[in-house]
Protein 1
Amino acid sequence: MRLFWNTRASWAAAVLAACGVLLWTGCGGGAGPTVIRLSHITSPGSTWDKGAHKFAELLEERSRGRFQVRVYAGAQLAQHNQKTELQQLCSGAIEMTLHSPIILALFLDPRFDAFSLPWLFPDHAVANAVCDGPFGKRALGWLEENGIHGIAFGVNGFRQLTNSVRAVTRPEDLKGMKVRVAGTDLFRAVFAAFGANPTTMNFGEVFTALEQGTISAQENPLSIIYSSKFYEVQTYCTIWNYAYDPLILTYNKTLWEKLSPEDRALITRCGKDAMDYERDLVQREDRELIETLRKKGMDVQVLDAPRKQLFRERCAGVYRQFAPRIGPAIVQAIQAAVETARQSGAGSGPD
């Protein structure tokens, strides 16, 4: 377990947030519905947000109003900061979050970096099969070790590249480009292998940094690129599917265990159904948003298999570099899970 309670300030922030939640919910009585706060970092209207609201809708309907879910987009309760958001989840200041394994690897447990290895997953079908299978169940166990209950996997999407400098179709095109990457060291290593200058910053700061020219590029799934309106400050987009990014719908473990078995089963069913809905949205947007972004004025390059292979080969050393951190057995296990899913016919092909 990676402890992130490393400053008095962060501890105080979590305690204050917890007190705020207690004041918000009140004590005892049981006169009204049980209120659940579900936080996520992305914008209102994003696929994360739509999945969260679908969960709220299903749970309120199926519980006949016994539960009320309040969705907080943009991590409003955490000062728009994902680290603080995760701290609040672990402390019980908020009940639920949607989190990417990228954030979980950065602040909670490095084993979650296994999901972010470059060009590991060929398509959504294989990725979903791995997340919903034995390897995904194993990963949810890592959450349990850290005081979090994982309910179901959703998807952020395959991560694509946007920039304001040039069309990127070869590794050399990234040379010297200042690229904001999600916080994991793994992504920094991938872009460094291409000769780029990777940097990290809180997601909530990315649009302004692109607008002001502090950075010239960023990487995110198409749904986030569109919902965050990056097309307003970026000219070029490269579809290369360099990393797959699932989501995990989570619940504070201590609070989860206080629920009745019947309510835990109900929340689990609603969570799985909501994440299936969210997955369908992302896959549909992956098909539709390329043309939408072109209509917004972006130059969108869709790389074929040989072009992707050039990038794959350039960053092959990342697997060797990060296997000791993730765990060699875990890297082998997720690679085996991908191959098993492929052979079972879950995917449509290598790219």
Note: The longest strand covers residues 236-252.
Protein 2
Amino acid sequence: MRKMNRLIDGMGLVAGLMGALVTQAADWPQYLGPNQDDKTSEKIASTWPAGGPRVVWKAPTTDGFSILAVSGGKAFTLMSRDVEGAEREVCVAFDANTGKEVWAVPLGIAKYDGGGDTPARDHATGGDGPRSTPTIDGGRVYALDGHLVLSCLDAAAGKTLWQKDLVKELGAKVVQWQNAASPVLDGDLIYLCCGAPDQSLLGLNKMDGSVAWKGESDPMTHASPVVATILGVRQVIFFTQKGLVSAEAKTGKVLWRYPFRYSVSTAASPVVSGDIVYCSAGYGVGSGAARSPRTAMTLRPPSCGGSAATSWPTIGAPRSSRTVTSTASSASRNLASAR
């Protein structure tokens, strides 16, 4: 099995900058940042030295696509490593000031069907490895591996506090090429989409992994959900193979749906701006945008699909998808999902 014990310049550079600023900069504790909007409140230099920013440290890494999550003076990421003769996904913690490895904890087997190292592919030279990024909160690290096992680790020492195997416990269905979504944490809950029948969309308690709420049967994608407050309502927006699904953050109640075509893989998270949610996918699919529901609602007559639902006009809907559907009952949820 090919081993790539190399220096990743991108990771080394980013880690170096974080190390230089860790005593004065805000944390970046999860994928897309502390507010799930890919924004930072820190001042970023508009001019750079001719030779680039000063690199404080670099760390050797192996294969993987996980980015760095930074919190409490440490930088965390996932990579693949040989562990007792088996290639494993490993969660690694670095000292953010020095780059020294603090601890490393093996997770699941690093095996990906049809991945970047598959011999049958003509361009199988790009490497492969974990795609998910850890989430840090309250001295704990939450890592979701490629086969949907969620691990909670102690950030200081790497001790495993609890694990939840979503396939064994809930009947989750791993997407082709394995999971790439990151666990998203907001308040006391961790949000995931796992593809399990009637419990695909999940809100898990961050302290013990128990299920706070569950629902729907949407097949999962490689996209991480996002959490946002839209029109005064805190909601988590999943990007499934059926399209966008917005659920009330505390209860999991489905608020609205936006049908969107799926082809091969959807990996980009939704982007929220005001009351508009943008989405996009490759493989010839394209992009779309939906305006979230307001107080004024227009009912769709039963003749349009057999069961009353509420709909709003969309902006730039893809192909034949022209409505965002709000679901007030399980019957209308099923109707919206089928479209």
Note: Residues 227-339 form one domain.
Protein 3
Amino acid sequence: MERGKGRNKERFGNARFITRLISSRIIPNMSRRILSPATVASTPQQLSLIEASDIPTSVQDADMTIDEAEVNRILKQLDEMVGREEVKRTLHNLVTLARTKQANGEDLSDTIPLQWTFTGSTGTGKSSVARLLAQLLHACHLISSDKMTQLRMPQTPSNTWTSYDIDQLLRETMKQSGQGLLFIDLDDIANSHIDVQWFRCKLTSLTAEMPGSYAFVIAVDDNRLQTSPIDVPISTSTIHFEDYTAEELIAILRQRLDKRGYSITDEALAELNRHIRTLCDNRSSGFANARTIKHIYIAVTSAAELRQNASPQPVITKEDVQSIKWKKLNSHRIGFGA
């Protein structure tokens, strides 16, 4: 503590420093030690005992100022995403707020939300942004890991799960997250009979019950919101993800091709534009925004590589685009509408 105080007097924060040191460093270190397979604890006293190894040994380990280099890297990656202007604005505002609170010597955990709701259709970037949000919250020392862990529901013959099943899966996933960000896509439990509000309350109670700090994002599809509205608590921040426009989807495809070093002829690009605009004009329940583009990308690049015998720099032609069996790709799973 003396080293921390002497190193950064103007932002030391006194009691706030101690509070954040305990919540952001000591308790997470203690939790990792207790959950380690090498640890055998037999009494409640041992499970609640802070050991010397749980306490940071250097000023750098105890330093809880915002990691500006990491924040700037994350924001740059965010800004490179196609579209998503509301999302970008929200996360940039989040960083501005965090920087202001830090400059004023205030505790970030009092104002920066750890509970988020992302609404929008499939393939609009909710999970991608959740990964960046996990990294941002970690760079602000609000969670102990920059890892995003998604809740995965096991496949069963009936695809139904009891409240006990979900409770146990949540606990296990939270442990796997290493006190990072938990991502829950409600489509994964769409066929269960668990009430959405029960699910949210259970998640909130578990974050209070389990040691350390956790963040979570609940992703809700627009169609589900229309049939079953969800009351969002005041403590939760909500971001809506609009469907991509045809122009944005074309830009996403070009971005993917450029990143992988593919060239494309003007005729091929015009053919792809025509197909993508048709898909956007006839959006059905099978349309999946960027996921649709992902499968178009796979199909067209596979055709080009097969035709050019795995050339290191294949060129996509109009014939490659036309070789795709568009009608056969009429599947809800991969995002092609009827």
Note: The longest helix spans residues 15-35.
Protein 4
Amino acid sequence: MIKIDKLTKNYATLEALKAVSLHIPKGELFAYLGPNGAGKTTTIRMLTGLTRPTSGTAFLNSYDIRKDVLSAKQQYGLVPQAVNLDQELTVSENLKIHGRLYRMTRKNIQNRMSDILSYVELSDYTDALVRTLSGGMKRRLMIARALMHEPAILFLDEPTVGLDANIRRKVWALIKKIQQSGTTIFLTTHYIEEAEFLAHRVAFLAKGSIVTMDTPRNLIDRQGKWAIDRISGDTLDTLYFASRKEAENFNANGDVQYTLRRVNLEDAFIAMTGKKTEPAAEFTSAPPSHHGSHKGHSAHGSHGGHGSQSVHGRHKTH
């Protein structure tokens, strides 16, 4: 459905994207994670025809983005990071304009608009001015607009940025519903828990290159099952263990305060995008075995662990 072949983008002396290749089959929800400047938005801009690649190409539903430009553009809907709705028009007027741009008939526009507004739970706001909508409603309207022409592919560039947690989860539910209908989804996000919850596979991008790519579960399992966060000087060190028992035994006689929690995708992301000593080339699609040993990788910053708990222990330094 989406095939990227050595896609590259250079700006003067900056290599924004370095020969990225990947394949995303029909119906997959694929998450593309990376820090600011990693190349996420550059990738989407090239895939959607907004930026011309320096070299390489990509295929959207078999259409070459460089040779079959118009046909490729008909295959996708795009939800950009910035809210780009016409604020002075109504909800229905925004959707009608989009439909006409895609040469939909008036009858098709009306029928599709009714269906899609019901789908995103905005039927009661058909005649409301966009500027009167909440942030979450505007995001849902942008998704509805992108789906108006029934595209095979949906590009979501930071779709929940700036939303509070409750509204963000409502958008997650909508995204999952869209994917379950058979739409292929390419998602970029800064919210790592968003990718962990939604995606079939995740790619970690750093400095224009894919560092690793796998399912969220496999990426997490490479680090371990349980983690201990402890303060070491001015930094937060994280140790990883294959089991909870090993983690608890490690600090049974310790003298430091620590937090015991489950490993999450943020741990894998930090470890594999520059915070870990092993080179990226050492990571494969299969998670390594842990053989009961712990990994003492240092992580700086907070960890939003699932099922975390504070534990006070005393640890002797050997």
Note: The first helix runs from residue 40 to 47.
